Amino acid sequence: MAVSSEIEWTEATWNPTTGCTKISPGCKNCYAETLTKRLKAMGQQKYKKGFQYIEHPSDVELPLTWRKPRKIFVNSMSDLFHERSTFEFTGKCFSTMIQADQHDYQILTKRPKRMAEFSELFFKYFGHKIPNFMWMGVSIENKNFVERINDLRKVRCHTRFISFEPLIGSVGKVNLKGIDWAIIGGESGHHYRPVEKEWILEIIEQCKKQNVAVFFKQWGGFRPKSGGRTINRRKFSEYPQINKRNSLKSIHFDEVAFAELCISNEARKLQQHNSITVN
Ligand code: SF4
Q1: pLDDT level of residue 279 (50, 70, 90 thresholds)
Q2: In this structure, which residue's CA is closest to atom 6 in ligand 1?
Q3: Could you tell me the distance, in angstroms and rounded to a whole number, from the CA of residue 30 to the centre of ligand 1?
Q4: Residues 192-228 pLDDT 10s
Q5: Among 226, 237, 228, 260, which residue's Cα sits nearest to residue 87?
Q6: Which atom of ligand 1 is nearest to 78's Cα?
Q7: Would you list the DSSP string of 184-210?
Q8: Ligand 1 close to Cβ of residue 80 (< 6 A)
């Protein structure tokens, strides 16, 4: 059975990894961390180590068991491109997505440099960019982190999105070239930081000018649904257009060969690092 979700812009969640580390102000009241504490207290085995980053091999093939096509948020409880993630394991997750290509996958990170690095390995192995039904995205909370969009543009993929949530400040003027979709949302929870209407409208206006689909998820507040999701008497519930799905199903994924590629990538990085240190 699929793990359904209450998150408005998705239909199910899949967490092949759990846990994370805070890296920017948007992480302050991390929803995944709060929920992890609750699930641990309830005795759920998967969360027994709390918010420590962990890969779960037993969950890697889960989407293959869900026949009905759905939008799947990958790692609502973690970050697939966390510093401690191994590209060997990430490769297996992508192999599952390639095989279960009836779904759309929404893969969101605050570590787009690592996402871009993985996409290079993906391209080397498959000879193609990451397919269009895998939507690759970054989270941005205010103008100090818009640089993540440039890193996202370096990801070798077809569909890109930005989650402006929790929006805790204005993002200012943003270049949305190559971006297909934007989610906008205020923070929720006991310690929520209120969002301002101008910050939301500023993003919507730029999306409209630059042909980016918009999904306004929530105003936020004490509870996620406290303020609703209407702005100026309107709801924005748009999604990116995926016209023809480009499947890579016919390309065999050999775990050992992909792992060798990952090892040679690490060796090359180490060599580069050493030559920089010596010089
Ligand atoms: S990157 Fe995401 S999951 Fe990780 S701590 Fe920050 S908000 Fe939480």
Answers
A1: low
A2: 27
A3: 6
A4: 999 999 999 999 999 999 999 999 999 999 988 889 9
A5: 260
A6: 3
A7: EE--BSTT-----HHHHHHHHHHHHHT
A8: no
**Contact 108 CB / ligand 1 (< 6 Å):** no
- Using a 10 angstrom Cβ sphere, with 0-12 exposed, 13-18 middle and 19 or more buried, the burial of residue 151 is middle
The Cα 190–Cα 185 span in angstroms is: 16
Tell me how far apart the alpha carbons of residues 70 and 73 are, in angstroms, rounded to a whole number: 10
pLDDT at 275 over 90: no
Q: What is the mean pLDDT of residues 126-138?
A: 97
- CB of 22 closer than 6 angstroms to any ligand 1 atom: yes
Task: For ligand 1, say whether the CB of 32 is within 6 Å of any of its atoms.
Answer: yes
| Interior angle at CA 72, CA 2 and CA 18, nearest 5 | 85
**Closest atom, ligand 1, to C-alpha of 109:** 1
Burial class (CB in 10 A: 0-12, 13-18, 19+), 110: buried
